[in-house]
Prior knowledge:
Helix content is about 45%, strand content about 15%. The protein is of the alpha/beta class and about 160 residues long.
Amino acid sequence: MRVAGIDPGIHGGIAIIDSCGQVEEVNLLQNVVPKTWLLERKIRLVYIEQCQSFPGQGIASAFNYGREYGYLLGTLAGTGVLTKLVRPGEWTKKIHKIYVSQGEAKDKSLLVAKHLWPETSFLATARSKKPHDGLIDAALIAYFGWLNELQLNQE
């Protein structure tokens, strides 16, 4: 069972976790057409982080983010790929609880990603110096989905 994860937004990412829980592929969302990318890879299940506004976010940016999020959901609906929404707090709580106990959310996500997939580069480009939050989050969202589906299949 392969599961894709999407961290939506302009700095978001898209990732695939293979049937063994390993990162198969990660990409910046802005560099792919999600519908084509998923269909070419024969993905049947996508977990996507649920859209929400943030404190201090301007009205225009919240509107643009919501519009892009709606477009993403619409294109996914047209593919026949099963899409499951997950709240940010839901996936981070489960993943962080399993692997780390202290630190800021983004630091915890990086620690978990390095622990699970030490060989995977989460750099946005060859010139990048630090891992990309959107790529890390997309992989962890996919991993959350993979764990969730394993649990559902065992019940």
